[in-house]
Amino acid sequence: MSRFWTDKIASLDPYVPGEQPQDKQYIKLNTNESPYGPSPKALAAMQDQVSEKLRLYPDPNCQTLKNALAKTYSVDADHVFVGNGSDEVLALAFMGYFAGGKPLAFADITYSFYKVYANLYGITPDIVPLNDDFDVVPSDYENLDVSGIVITNPNAPTGKALPLADIEKVLQSNPDIVVLVDEAYVDFGAQSAVTLVGQYPNLMVVQTLSKSRALAGIRVGYAIAQPELIEGLERLKNSFNSYPVDRIALAGATAAVEDTDYLEEICQKTVATREWTTIELEALGFQVLPSATNFVFVTHPEHEAESLYLGLKEQGILVRYFGNKPRIGDFLRITIGTDAEMAALVARLKEM
Ligand code: PMP
Predict the structure, then answer these.
(1) 106 with 125: CB under 8 angstroms?
(2) Measured from the CB, is residue 152 less than 6 Å from ligand 1?
(3) Is the distance from the beta carbon of residue 85 to the nearest atom of ligand 1 less than 6 Å?
(4) How many other C-beta atoms are found inside a 10 Å radius of the C-beta of residue 64?
(5) Are residues 302 and 157 in the same domain?
(6) Per-residue pLDDT of the chain in tens (352 residues, 90 and over written 9)
(7) Interval between CA 117 and ligand 1 midpoint (Å)
(8) Distance, CA of 171 to CA of 203 (rounded, Å)
(9) Which end of the chain is more exposed for a tag (fewer CB within 10 A), N or C?
(10) Residue 253 belongs to a domain with what CATH number?
(11) How far away, in angstroms, is 86 Cα from ligand 1 center?
(12) 8 A C-beta contact, residue 75 and residue 197
């Protein structure tokens, strides 16, 4: 029998997160987590909160974290918004700035959550295909009749980055709509558009602590934009959940953002391991897209992605396979782990 809610539930097409298997210990190269622990200073700050302090609500304004981020990116604290992972920041931006009108432009291939939010908020996607080299082409974003544009830089899961001049072209040809630049992986080698925020009132940059700051477990993301756009996100947040970031996360995130030396150290290690992995995979006949992230997007002319994924899983190594889909289905996305983990990956692939 069809009840009131059945159609509603059937209409949802949720995001399927990467596997987080509990059956055994895998070398986990499938969800772009950092192989290194968070900053020791962040761990100490979080441990300090695990006390009687937890009877108190956190600061709903996340002021200490906003101040630390503002200092890091040379903006005022009223240019910063904080949310429960960048997924929540994206959800609020979609709700506030893209819903209720024209379609929203974003690429194919890109982060698959955009389609999910679009569906949730009744937004029609205006899909702009990447070119044959898997690049975003700025002129494809001119003269669109859309409510907004999302550019992922570096893109995921391709790993390719756009130069800042190309981001500027998109901003300049779309002065009246929000251009959201999702920079989840920017610290691993791309140029951040944060430096353009002062010039472009239509720019919103979104970043996360989940990747380069090794804090996926505490769910903290943020947006940087001019105060008008930030104020919109604050109003939405306060209409939805005034306390999206808990006390432990807030303390850990603030200490992690302040520890810039640690950020630099683990990013450098990841980039060095990525370069080594790229050379090794190419020697095995893989095509490896140039990556500015903590993962590589690879395909092999003689071996199907699915059989490689299954063979590696059998050997205790998890990588991301996207299913039998056009274009993306030929590829695997492999997170950069430690040197030892990547050496194990290469050794298994050689055997296979
Ligand atoms: N944007 C992109 C491009 C991502 O790949 C991810 C991670 N899956 C996110 C945003 C979300 O990250 P988080 O919610 O952990 O901040």
Answers:
(1) yes
(2) yes
(3) yes
(4) 18
(5) no
(6) 678 888 888 888 888 888 888 878 999 999 999 999 999 999 999 999 999 999 999 999 999 999 999 999 999 999 999 999 999 999 999 999 999 889 999 999 999 999 999 999 999 999 999 999 999 999 999 999 999 999 999 999 999 999 999 999 999 999 999 999 999 999 999 999 999 999 999 999 999 999 999 999 999 999 999 999 999 999 999 999 999 999 999 999 999 999 999 999 999 999 999 999 999 999 999 999 999 999 999 999 999 999 999 999 999 999 999 998 889 999 999 999 999 999 999 999 999 9
(7) 13
(8) 7
(9) N
(10) 3.40.640.10
(11) 6
(12) yes
Quick one: which atom of ligand 1 is closest to the CA of 86?
16
**Which amino acid is located at 197 in the chain?**
V
> How far is it, in rounded angstroms, from Cα 184 to Cα 154?
8
Q: What is the span of the domain harbouring residue 28?
A: 11-37+261-351
For the CA of 209, the closest atom of ligand 1 is 16
Helices (H), 85-135: 85-93, 113-120
DSSP string, 291-351: -SSSEEEEE-SSS-HHHHHHHHHHTTEEEEE--S-TTGGG-EEEE---HHHHHHHHHHHHH
Residue nearest (by alpha carbon) to ligand 1 atom 1:
184
- Two tokens, residue 172: 């300049």
25 in a structural domain: yes
Output the CA 212–ligand 1 centroid distance in Å. Answer: 12
Do residues 334 and 319 make contact, with C-beta atoms less than 8 angstroms apart?
Answer: yes
**Interval between CA 208 and ligand 1 midpoint (Å):** 7
In DSSP notation, 248-280 reads: HHHHHHHHHHH-HHHHHHHHHHHHHHHHHHHHH
CB within 8 Å of 165: residues ≥ 6 apart: none
The interface predicted TM-score of the complex, written ipTM, equals 0.99
Only one residue has tokens 């609020």, namely 92
> Does residue 307 share a domain with residue 252?
no
Examine the fold and report which residue of 215, 238, 259 is the final residue of a domain before the chain moves on: 259
Do residues 229 and 94 share a domain? yes
Number of domains in the chain: 2
